[in-house]
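Example record

Each entry pairs one chain with its bound ligand, adenosine monophosphate.
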Amino acid sequence: MGTRGSTRTRNHNPGLAGGGAGGGGRYHRPPVPNLRPPKGTDDVLPPESRTWRQVLRAWDDWSERFGYELVMTPLFEATDLFERGVGESTEVVRKQMYTFEDRGGRSVTLRPEGTASVVRAYLNAGIQGEWKGAYSGPMFRYERPQGGRRRQFWQTGVEHLGTERPTADAEVIELGYRFLVDLGVPGVEVQINSLGDAVDRPAYVAELTAYLEARRDQLCADSIETMAVNPLRVLDCKTCAPILGDAPTPDQHLGTEAAEAYEEVKARLAAADVPFVEAPRLVRGLDYYTRTAFEYVGGELDIAQVALGGGGRYDGLAEEIGGRRVPGVGLAMGIDRIIVALGEAIPAAALDGFVVTVAGRNAESAGLVSQLRRAGLRVDAADPERSVKSQFKAADRSGAPTTIVVGDEWDEGLVRTKRMADGTETDIEIQELAAWLS
Ligand code: AMP
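Structure tokens for the complex follow.
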């Protein structure tokens, strides 16, 4: 932080400058903070965090298998980027952004999603042609928190830029599907739709608007508001769904090229053994989608949060944020919801072995722990200064399947191992230990 920052800190935080509680100076100490994390945010601790690691590793693995390299963009951006790149008519931009003025008077916003930033980064780097990037990190939206709907939440996603080929759409959809199935999310379903091209949209929107206007007095208040800014999105309203059964849908109004592209996406999915259902009313929350739109549902979540992820094609986005025309397709997976969908089961221990040290064997024990870690094993040890009994308690708590005791057997080149599940003890040669544990 620069000089200016620290000056301010001193002004605002005089407790540090010697005020002290009730110190009688003209400064007051700031109130003691609440130890709970802010509303709609979470601390993720072990053992639940084991599931997070497992899921994020699976994401890295699957996105690499599909040829997506890592891209990292800032957690905050100029507010304009999201206003233009997500769209002013969206719920996200109208109601959910964490926007503030920084100390230099710029309006910045904590990123509510990843796509606009990745496309900005692609344009800014002067990349030409086809390019594939994967991201993973926290996003921020001011929402009414509930399970699986948070104010800070984690998305992983990919963007495939610089191509209009429907094979890219199918590949993106397949990646998300494989990821969810590999994790073991129950009942994964891929829903797809085509929203048509920008040129097809005005005629369709006119027809839809006329249809909605005729039923205005039956629509919910939210839908009436949405209708004024983006009529398409009314199709997505769960409350109004029963009265909109015969509404015109985008897939019935595709131009020739969009229709052909949609057929090819479906054919490619079938060829890759990705089951899908067509969902003519699926429109997605963000403004910039053209042609393909899709979502993944699954798990045992209530209706407000069934979408585990989704995405689509956004051929107009790059121009919308001030660049040249760059077609693109991408997806975003909601990791918080995927964790909920996976249920309560916590993955097995995060350790392969736990080392207990008999008095006088600290050096041997420390050397062994280091050697096992270098051999690729996940190993931890208790404080060797504590009693063996209390070290064994720590071994139990660690959840490691095997405890390794470094004691007097060491002089014969052995350590004693104990299988925690049934108490079986076996002496193992130190040289063999790493292989034996794995
Ligand atoms: P979106 O960027 O709105 O298309 O969302 C993509 C996915 O991110 C959704 O399907 C959700 O799984 C997840 N997601 C969106 N908003 C939230 C939120 N507030 N809390 C948790 N997950 C979210």
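Confidence is low (pLDDT under 50) at residues 1-23.
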